[in-house]
Design goal:
- 34% of the residues lie in helices and 18% in strands.
- It is α/β, with parallel strands linked by helices.
């Protein structure tokens, strides 16, 4: 029987133990410790240079594990090293040490902390990062070069909306707008809905000279980090997508960031349009925020010969959508490992203000512009009308299953209830864009866990009934309800039951509680569907379901 490793891993039969005969006492102790600590499979997988050299992993760790760069002998120790890396980085700053490996671990930990609840550990790490970024004494040129490579270039922030720089020109298109809506309409709710109103930014198209694009469509120009998405302003605590490429650790009055631009030669182009943004791979941001920039591009009169910049890791359905909406335009697909220098960069504004930071209340992020959405819908349908379609009838009642991300704990039981009520179960994530559009356009009822797939509501016909399932603690936003109502559809929500044990987590504001999986009450769901979508009805009932405490509009 193969011997089990101390951390639960089975040693490969072919892995020979290093010989300890003739070793001095110090080396013998290190080898004995390494035999206990090292997971050989993990070590060789994590450090390909050791694997390529054909060196025994146990002896290598005994001799080199504590040298530069630092090596973790097993997954547990790797997590521990990253966890204490803020203290190691502080030692680098105070003692003027040249430890690039400690700084790299620290950056990984800082990025991880910036996605969390921003507690004491994050605030301490933020102070350490700021100290390292601003240190001046005892720093050699090699130190500065390594620091730029690992934590990024320290740059001042320029905001397009400030109109303060002569290398940016703006063409104003539409003035700011107010969008009015209500809080989420919950089935069986006892509280009345609340009326809301948010201000939407004006629409413009910027012309920027001498720009460099990197990361998830971040822009550096004339020695400044350029903020063009209001939701990606560095003053906010967190920005999805951008946080891996831009470190925000400075105080508000310092107005600086650390931009982690890739090394190596940059790609170059004379003129281009920035179509993507911080969250291009997220289907909602891609479809509703970025593709709808086409309305601005057309209004600004940017020539059809100017190519579009998009990330190179978009899903096939997203590429299909870009080619459908912008036929004939060249696509410049930028990999995250490269930068792109653009002589003249056109940056269309977004119609939304949808920051990821938790300090901005959810309902303040939910404004939409009908003009942008009408352009998106009209352009897609104008192309699809001229295309031949197969003869398969599209399902009328659709349940959108979710294959990844946060999900319903009792998903199988929920899908079974929908199936019993005549719904077709569909996972839209693997469907071509055209098929998704046709499916939503033909549906009378659409239901599912609230998520990015609901963005396709923009293609629904007026009167379509929408039912969103979600966590009681996560469904605080009216965003998809707003999208449905802008498209003249009826939307309601069914949320998970209250749990007493969640109160403790709510006090701590744990993000995982809001974004984690949840359970749907099967009995409530069945009662709702009997009122909402009766199988034996002569025609589809597209009205919101009624209940003793319903506050939904018909």
């Amino acid at each position: 029987m193969a011997r089990r490793h101390a951390f639960g891993q089975r040693r490969p039969h072919a892995m020979r133990m290093p010989s300890m005969i003739g070793e001095d006492f110090g080396t013998l102790l290190r080898l004995l410790a390494a035999r206990w600590l090292v997971d050989p499979v993990f070590y060789l997988d994590r450090y390909p240079d050791v694997r390529a050299a054909g060196v025994d992993p146990i002896r290598h760790f005994a001799e080199c594990g504590y040298a530069i760069p630092i090596r973790a002998p097993n997954p547990f120790m790797e997590r521990a090293i990253i966890r204490v890396s803020p203290l190691l980085a502080l030692a680098v700053s105070v003692l003027h040490l040249q430890r690039d490996d400690w700084l790299q671990c620290f950056v990984e930990r800082y990025i991880d902390l910036s996605c969390g609840d921003l507690g004491f550990e994050y605030r301490f790490a933020r102070w350490v990062m700021r100290r390292i970024a601003l240190r001046r004494q005892g720093v050699t040129e090699d130190d500065r070069a390594a620091q730029k490579r690992i934590i990024g270039h320290r740059l001042p922030v320029a905001r397009i909306a400030d109109r303060a720089h002569d290398w940016i020109s703006l063409k104003d298109l539409d003035p700011p707008r107010t969008h009015r809506f209500t809080s989420p309409r919950l089935w069986n709710a006892r509280r009345p809905v609340v009326q809301r109103a948010v201000s939407l930014p004006g629409l413009w198209c910027a012309d920027v000279r001498g720009a460099r694009v990197f990361g998830s469509m971040q822009v550096v120009v004339n020695g400044h980090f350029l903020t063009y998405e209001p939701a990606a302003d560095p003053r906010l605590s967190f920005t999805a997508g951008q946080y891996r490429h831009v470190i925000t650790c400075f105080a508000d009055h310092e107005n600086m960031v650390l931009a982690r631009m890739p090394e190596g030669p940059s790609l170059q182009v004379d003129e281009a349009i920035l179509l993507g943004g911080r969250c291009s791979k997220n289907y909602f941001h891609f479809l509703i925020e970025y593709l709808s920039k086409g309305y601005v591009i057309e209004r600004a009169g940017v020539p059809a010969s100017v190519p579009l910049i998009i990330p190179d890791d978009l899903f096939p359905a997203q590429i299909e959508a870009v080619e459908l909406l912008f036929p004939g335009r060249q696509l410049l697909r930028l990999p995250v490992s490269r930068t792109l220098d653009v002589g003249r960069l056109h940056i269309p504004s977004l119609m939304t203000y949808l920051p990821d930071a938790l300090e901005v209340t959810d309902w303040k992020k939910e404004g939409l512009r009908r003009e942008n959405l009408d352009w998106l819908r009209t352009r897609v349908f104008s192309v699809l009308v001229g295309e031949t379609d197969d003869d398969r009838p599209a399902p009328s009642r659709i349940y959108l299953a979710r294959s990844r991300g946060r999900n319903i704990v009792n998903a199988a039981a929920v899908a079974s209830v929908f199936r019993n009520h005549g719904f077709t179960i569909v996972d839209p994530s693997g469907l071509p864009f055209r098929e998704q559009v046709r499916m939503f356009a033909a549906a009378s009822h659409i239901a599912g866990p609230v998520g990015a797939a609901f963005s396709n509501i923009v293609f629904c016909r007026p009167g379509t009934a929408i039912l969103g399932l979600g966590s009681r603690h996560g469904l605080t936003s009216s965003l998809y309800q707003n999208l449905a109502e802008v498209m003249d559809c009826n939307c309601t929500h069914l949320v998970s039951d209250k749990r007493l044990r969640d109160r403790l987590y709510l006090r701590k504001n744990v993000i995982s509680l809001r974004q984690g999986s949840y359970t749907i009450n099967i009995d409530q769901l069945d009662r709702l569907l009997r009122a909402w979508s009766p199988v034996n009805a002569s025609g589809p009932d597209t009205r919101a379901p009624s209940s003793p405490h319903s506050t939904n509009r018909s």
